[in-house]
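Predicting holo structure, erythose-4-phosphate bound.
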Amino acid sequence: MKFFIDSADINEIKEGIELGLVDGVTTNPSLISKVNKDFDTIVTEILEAVDGPVSLEVIGSEHTQMIAEAQNLVKLGGNVVVKVPMTEEGLKAVRVLSKEGIRANVTLIFSPLQALLAAKAGAAFISPFIGRLDDIAYVGMELIEKIQHILSNYDYTSEVIVASIRNPLHVLDAALIGADIVTVPLKVIKQLARHPLTDVGIKKFLQDWEKVPGSKNF
Ligand code: E4P
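Done. Tokens:
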């Protein structure tokens, strides 16, 4: 399973890279707004640090605006993926962009049929938002199962990015289902590495090591 980091903060991204858990990056306007730097600086820093796909979102609502924005965004780096919202205009844009060889990540997907349409339009990536569905009492992970099932019925090459991940269980379920990619905030990445019994075990080993004759010479 590929791990993307869901962040526009270069310090978080660099920490994720050190952990070996940044196969790509996803951003969105809300994540960009949390970083107190201008857009060009944010993107330049990310693209210098990351080799894998970096999703940058378009702002326009008409397909012609989205296409023009996308064409500018991809000039910033060969690994830029253009994030396009799941609307009719977005689908029109993705269709044109995929023919031009520009990779699109269709975002804000909340139903299996939206995912099917995005795949059919030629999206390189499809981003269903799990946490936001859980927030309104729908089981987000069921959406991933349905999308994986539908895509496996056909020859679509779109990769599913499990997005809006809020906790380690989301990552576990995505891995059990066999999702292609998870995009995870750094806070959750760190939670994945921790276990209280690991901490207890390390403490006990160090205490016992103290009892070994000559251990203080190490
Ligand atoms: C994914 O591409 C989105 O940036 C992100 O996962 C949204 O997560 P949120 O619902 O926690 O804002």
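The longest strand covers residues 80-85.
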